[in-house]
Amino acid sequence: MKKIVLLLVFLISSLVAEPKLTDIFDAYDNAKAQNKNVIIMLSMEGCPGCEYMKDIVFENKNVAKLLNNFVLVELDVRADSVPDKLEYFATPTFYFLDSNEKILKRINGGENVGDFTKTLKKMKK
């Protein structure tokens, strides 16, 4: 019985596993290898919109599951080196890119769970 319970806990946790963040230098190689697109979130410490996305939107089970279809990168605009082509005027800013670094979509600001889910479904490869 213990084995069955442990197996169920493992299976359920793997279904809703938190998406992994990767380093920008590895993102495009990983995206090519996994046949995925890349999401880069430009954020900043203390940004209420960034915290909302991380604490509310990304924690939604459906969003978390969809995020696993992407290679995820978070760059702090104050602490990290942001590539010149990734412009922003506020945080969060999201860039959806293909594995060849072509920008497919940009989102300025956060989105609610429903809108972000729709975006992820459209941008999924």
Question: Short summary of the structure?
Answer:
By secondary structure, the chain is α+β, with helices and mostly antiparallel strands. It has helices spanning 2-15, 24-34, 48-57, 61-67, 113-123, and strands spanning 37-43, 70-76, 93-97, 103-108. The N and C termini lie far apart (40 Å).
Can you characterise this structure?
By secondary structure, the protein is an alpha+beta fold. The chain has one domain: Glutaredoxin, CATH 3.40.30. Helices cover 42% and strands 20% of the residues. The protein is built from five helices and four strands. It has helices spanning 2-15, 24-34, 48-57, 61-67, 113-123, and strands spanning 37-43, 70-76, 93-97, 103-108. It is globular, with a radius of gyration of 16 Å. The model is unreliable at 1-18 (pLDDT under 50).
Share in β-strands: 15-25%
Give the biggest sheet: 4 strands, mixed
Report helical residue fraction. 40-55%
Structural class: alpha+beta
Strand order of the largest sheet: 2-1-3-4
How many discrete structural domains?
Answer: 1
- What is the H-and-E element order? HHEHHEEEH
Counting DSSP H or I runs of 4 or more residues, the number of helices is 5
**What distance separates the N and C termini?**
40 Å
How many DSSP-defined strands?
Answer: 4
CATH topology: Glutaredoxin
Which word captures the global form? globular
Under CATH, the homologous superfamily reads Glutaredoxin
Q: Any idea what the radius of gyration is?
A: 16 Å
**Unreliably modeled segments:** 1-18
Mean pLDDT: 86
CATH architecture: 3-Layer(aba) Sandwich
The CATH class label is: Alpha Beta
